[in-house]
C-alpha cells in the first residue's frame, strides 16, 4: 500500500521494528507448518492479552489471519484426501422417507440429529465462528456453527456422513494456534449414558447388599416392637377421633359466632334506617311549619302594605268589588309583574265559584273542582296574562301588533265608560 492513492492522495506506509519481527516470525511459522505456527502465535500473543481482532496492531492481526488461513488450507487438504467426491455429502432433495409411528419417529429423528452434530474441544481463544465455518465447510454443507464456553464449539452438518468424515479427519488437527479434539454428539451422549448407568448400578448394588445385611436385624426389631406398635396404633386411633370431635366443636362455635355477628349487623342496619326515617320526618315537619309560618307572615305583611298604600279607603270594602284599574299604581308590585298578571287575587276571587284550598299540612289535599271551572279559570288567567303583557309594552313604549292595538282600544273604551256605569 506504500504509494497507493487514498481519497485522491498518495499515501506512505511505514513499519515499526516490533511489527516487522512479529510479521517475520508469523510468516516463517506459516511456511514451516501448523505446530510452528502455533508457537509463533503464542510468542506474538505474549506481548499482551485480548482478542486478536480487537488489537490495534495490524501486523499481529495479519499474522493471526495467516495462521488461520494456513490451518484452513490444511483442513481442506484433509477433506480432499478423506472424501474425494464432495457431491456425496451434498443435501439430497426429493427423497421420500416413510414416517415411523409413535415414539419411534421421535427417537429416529433425535438419533439422526445427534449423528449430524460434532463437538470440538480445545479451541483457540482467538477462534471465531467464521474460522470454525471455514475449517469444516470442505467436509460438507453446514447448518450451524456455534462457540460455547470453555474452549468448546459445535458444528451441525446437513449430512451425517459429512459429520463422520470431519470427526475422522480433524480429530487432533490444528485450528489456528491450538490442536483440537473432535467427537460426534451421538458418541458423547452414549458415553455419558454409559457412565451414568455405571454409577446407578453401583448405587443399586450397594443398596441391595446393605438391605440384605440389615434384613435379619430389621425382622428381629419388628418382632420385639409388635406389642408397642399395637398400642401405638390404638392410641393414634383414639387421638384421631379426639381431633375430629374437637374440629367439629370448633366449627360449631365458629358458625354460632358468625350468626351472632350477622344478627348484630342486621340490628345496626335497622336502627340506622329508623334513625334516618325519624330525622327525615322531623325535617319535613319543620319545613311545613316554616312554610306555614312564612305564608302567614307574608299575608300579614301584604295586608299591611295594601292598607298603608290605600290610606284606609278600602278597609271596609270587599276587594273583589273594586276593579284593578281603579287601584293606585303602587299596587302593581315587581313580584306581581314578574308572575302571571297584576292583582291576581281579585281575578280569581271573582271568577271561581268555589274556594281552592292549598295544602298546609301532611293531611291536607286539594279541593275538588270541576273541569268547566278549571277551564274557565285557565282562560281568565291567560287573558289576564295577555293584558298584563300589553300594559308592560305600553309602559316601555314598544311597538304593538294590530291585535294588541285593538285590545288596547277596547280597554280604553271600557275605562272611559266605567264612571257612567256607577
TrEMBL record:
Pfam families: RRM_1. InterPro entries: Nucleotide-bd_a/b_plait_sf (IPR012677), RBD_domain_sf (IPR035979), RRM_dom (IPR000504). The keyword Coiled coil applies. Gene3D superfamilies: 3.30.70.330. Keywords: Coiled coil, RNA-binding. Residues 116-187 form the RRM domain. Residues 244-286 form a coiled coil. GO terms for molecular function: RNA binding. This is DNA/RNA binding protein, putative. It comes from Eimeria acervulina.
Amino acid at each position: 500500500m506504500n504509494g497507493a492513492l487514498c481519497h485522491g492522495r498518495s499515501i506512505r506506509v511505514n513499519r515499526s521494528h516490533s511489527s516487522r519481527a512479529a510479521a517475520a516470525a508469523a510468516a516463517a511459522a506459516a511456511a514451516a507448518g501448523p505446530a510452528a505456527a502455533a508457537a509463533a502465535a503464542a510468542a506474538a500473543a505474549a506481548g499482551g492479552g485480548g482478542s486478536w481482532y480487537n488489537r490495534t496492531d495490524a501486523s499481529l492481526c495479519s499474522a493471526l489471519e495467516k495462521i488461520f488461513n494456513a490451518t484452513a488450507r490444511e483442513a481442506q487438504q484433509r477433506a480432499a484426501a478423506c472424501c474425494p467426491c464432495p457431491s456425496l455429502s451434498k443435501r439430497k432433495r426429493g427423497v421420500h422417507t416413510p414416517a415411523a409411528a409413535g415414539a419411534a419417529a421421535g427417537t429416529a429423528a433425535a438419533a439422526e440429529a445427534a449423528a449430524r452434530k460434532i463437538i470440538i474441544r480445545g479451541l483457540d481463544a482467538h477462534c471465531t465462528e467464521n474460522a470454525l465455518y471455514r475449517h469444516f465447510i470442505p467436509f460438507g454443507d453446514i447448518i450451524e456453527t456455534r462457540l460455547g464456553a470453555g474452549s468448546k464449539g459445535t458444528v451441525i452438518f446437513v449430512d451425517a456422513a459429512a459429520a463422520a468424515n470431519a470427526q475422522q479427519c480433524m480429530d487432533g488437527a490444528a485450528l489456528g494456534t491450538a490442536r483440537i479434539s473432535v467427537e460426534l454428539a451421538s458418541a458423547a451422549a452414549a458415553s455419558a449414558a454409559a457412565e451414568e448407568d455405571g454409577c446407578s448400578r453401583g448405587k443399586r448394588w450397594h443398596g441391595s447388599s446393605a438391605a440384605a445385611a440389615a434384613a435379619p436385624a430389621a425382622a428381629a426389631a419388628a418382632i420385639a416392637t409388635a406389642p408397642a406398635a399395637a398400642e401405638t396404633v390404638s392410641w393414634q386411633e383414639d387421638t384421631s377421633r379426639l381431633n375430629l370431635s374437637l374440629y367439629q366443636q370448633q366449627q360449631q362455635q365458629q358458625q354460632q359466632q358468625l350468626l351472632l355477628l350477622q344478627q348484630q349487623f342486621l340490628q345496626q342496619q335497622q336502627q340506622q334506617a329508623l334513625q334516618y326515617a325519624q330525622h327525615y320526618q322531623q325535617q319535613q315537619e319543620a319545613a311545613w311549619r316554616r312554610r306555614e309560618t312564612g305564608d302567614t307572615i307574608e299575608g300579614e305583611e301584604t295586608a299591611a302594605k295594601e292598607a298603608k298604600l290605600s290610606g284606609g279607603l278600602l278597609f271596609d270594602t270587599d276587594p273583589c268589588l273594586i276593579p284593578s284599574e281603579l287601584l293606585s299604581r303602587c299596587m302593581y308590585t315587581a313580584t306581581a309583574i314578574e308572575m302571571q298578571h297584576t292583582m291576581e287575587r281579585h281575578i280569581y276571587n271573582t271568577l271561581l265559584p268555589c274556594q281552592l284550598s292549598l295544602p298546609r299540612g301532611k293531611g291536607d289535599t286539594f279541593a275538588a273542582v270541576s273541569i268547566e271551572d278549571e277551564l274557565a279559570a285557565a282562560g281568565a288567567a291567560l287573558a289576564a296574562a295577555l293584558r298584563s303583557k300589553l300594559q308592560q309594552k305600553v309602559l316601555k313604549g314598544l311597538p304593538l301588533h294590530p291585535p294588541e292595538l285593538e285590545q288596547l282600544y277596547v280597554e280604553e273604551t271600557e275605562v272611559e265608560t266605567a264612571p257612567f256605569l256607577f
